[in-house]
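Researcher: Hi, I'm a grad student and pretty new to this. My advisor asked me to get structures for two proteins we've been looking at. I'm not sure of the right format, so I'll just paste the first sequence and hope you can take it from there.
Model: That works fine. Here's the first sequence with its structure tokens right after it:
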Amino acid sequence: MQGITIELMKQYTSSAYRVFNRIELFVSFEGVLTLELNGKKSHFYHQVAIINHNDIVKVKDAQAVAKISIPLHYFSEYQPHYLLGFFNQEKLSSHNIITTQIK
């Protein structure tokens, strides 16, 4: 079984890739985070970016960023049909608390 991974990067860009069997969270400690998520360019200023299973993401610009990858099997205990669900970015209201906990 794969575990949770945390990567800390000072500056980060990537080519487009698809996220399989995991959820990725991007947290920028300097507030600079620009992603192309499923073909749509999005800016996440002092927000947590949620990348769901099967999403296509390209990191355009990220500074002082933490990338947290959580395998989907961690959610199977709480939701038996976890492959059919997703995490809604707009419903997340505790960006500051999450960022503080990660720091």
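Researcher: Oh nice, that was easy. Here's the second one.
Model: And its structure:
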Amino acid sequence: MKKLLSLFVLILSIGLLSGCVKGVFHVKVNKDGSADLNYDLGFESTLLGFASSDGQNPIEEIRKQAEEQGFTVANYKENGYTGI
């Protein structure tokens, strides 16, 4: 979980500073102390194309790690951003 969170923070920081990544994070803490997490992480299509030019898709890397941690992951494409 720490690796995934660190990766999210790193990518989000780089992207937000350059304006090429959109991140929305919601955390709902339930009465029983558990939490529901909802992350939307999108890359500007141009950045995604550049990042994927070496044959590796960063979205798929993040998807794989999130699913290994037990998260449910879905794709989205909205306003020029592609992500999960």
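Researcher: Is there anything I should tell my advisor about the second?
Model: You could mention this: Residues 2-18 form the longest helix (17 residues).
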